[in-house]
Design goal:
Elements: E1 2-5, H1 12-17, H2 38-42, H3 47-56, E2 61-66, E3 69-74, H4 91-98, H5 103-106, E4 122-132, E5 146-155, E6 159-167, E7 176-185, H6 197-203, E8 229-234, H7 248-267, E9 279-286, E10 295-302, E11 309-315, E12 321-329
Antiparallel strand pairs: 1-2, 2-3, 3-5, 4-7, 4-9, 5-6, 6-7, 8-10, 9-12, 10-11, 11-12
Helix pairs in contact: 4-7
Length: 337
């Protein structure tokens, strides 16, 4: 096991988790230099990801337990922008926290989790599913510091699937779980590319029997003949990742924003509607890219059998479907007033 401390990340939760005494804020772990030079790391396609992650999460304590398992701890990952007006976490903040272990994909020194930065390929997320527990939205439960566990569960010919769990210090179970399916793509041809033999030999032993790809969202918009709601959104600078494309968390946020706007337009802040509902689960498929300044159409319909479930589709300016999502909220609270 290897432990990396990025700056100081004091606090009892960190000391307890890393096996340190309660009277000290120091750890004896060191960060050895990779065989790959730092210069090679900084010139890689993931250099911008590394710079952003290093500055955004300076208090991360990262551990690589084995080639198929990593853990990360962080205090201060949530800011005021991470919460809705009712004090509940936004879905984009939850997904960002679950992405904490990705810091180890491309950092400049220390062992790389999954060795993504050494593959020479691009990594694209094709599908994702998320489930959340009610404790995640309980304002009486401390939300920081967090612990994130990232497991490699499936290795395919040109892809892999990870399962990530989020823990809070006062809850003895995961409060959120994300599964993500990632495809490796050749930088030049933009077609799926098989990883090198050394990578497959190293990581295939951690692929679990019976694991499957993430199923696509169940709703077929092409056969829907009923009405649907639409909200337009622009891709802003804050939505763009280091690859200069719309970040995967932004697509989910666009759906929640579209729903919230529609609710407020119809009902305002009355008990009949709720623009700040808590996400219980979602499954989504990424079908294309969006760039800075794109005007996107977010279309959605309520499920005919479950009033808490909505189906979303995002279309780019060329009228191409680039994202689909099935999103279920926790039941809406109706005031008696």
């Amino acid at each position: 096991m290897f432990v990396t401390r990025i700056r100081n990340a004091g606090g009892h939760f960190f000391r307890q988790t890393l096996g340190l005494s309660a009277s000290t804020n120091k750890t004896t772990a060191t960060r050895p230099t990779l065989k790959m030079s730092k210069a090679k790391h900084s010139s890689s396609i993931y250099a911008d990801f590394n710079r952003k992650s290093r500055q955004a999460h300076p208090n991360v304590v990262a551990k690589v337990l084995n080639p198929g398992l990593s853990e990360a701890y962080c205090d201060g990952i949530f800011s005021s922008e991470s919460f809705l007006p009712n004090g509940h976490l936004t879905v984009s903040a939850i997904l960002t926290a679950l992405d904490l272990c990705a810091e180890m994909y491309w950092r400049e020194s220390g062992p790389l989790y999954l060795d993504v930065a050494e593959l020479g390929s691009l990594a694209f997320i094709t599908s994702l599913q998320l489930s959340c527990e009610p404790e995640l939205y309980n304002c009486d439960i401390a939300k920081q510091p967090v612990k994130v566990v990232n497991e490699l569960v499936l290795v395919g010919n040109t892809s892999f699937k990870t399962r990530v769990k989020l823990f809070l210090p006062e809850v003895n179970k995961p409060v959120a779980q994300k599964e993500m399916f990632t495809v490796l793509v050749d930088q030049n041809t933009r077609k799926p590319a098989a990883p090198p033999a050394w990578w497959r030999d190293k990581h295939l032993p951690y692929s679990r029997t019976g694991e499957k790809r993430i199923p696509p969202p169940p709703f077929d918009f092409s056969t829907w003949t009923g009405s649907k709601q639409q909200e337009d959104v622009y891709v802003l600078t804050m939505d763009v990742d280091a690859n200069r494309h719309c970040h995967f968390t932004a697509f989910v946020r666009f759906c929640c924003e579209a729903y919230g706007r529609s609710q407020f337009r119809q009902f305002g802040h009355t008990s009949r509607g709720d623009p700040f509902r808590d996400v219980k689960s979602l499954v989504c498929a990424f079908k294309g890219e969006a760039s800075l300044g794109d005007l996107l159409k977010v279309c959605f319909v309520q499920d005919v059998k479950d009033s808490d479930t909505y189906h979303f589709q995002i279309v780019n300016p060329q009228e191409t479907v680039i994202f689909e999502c099935c999103l279920t909220f926790f039941p809406q609270f109706h005031s008696k007033i």
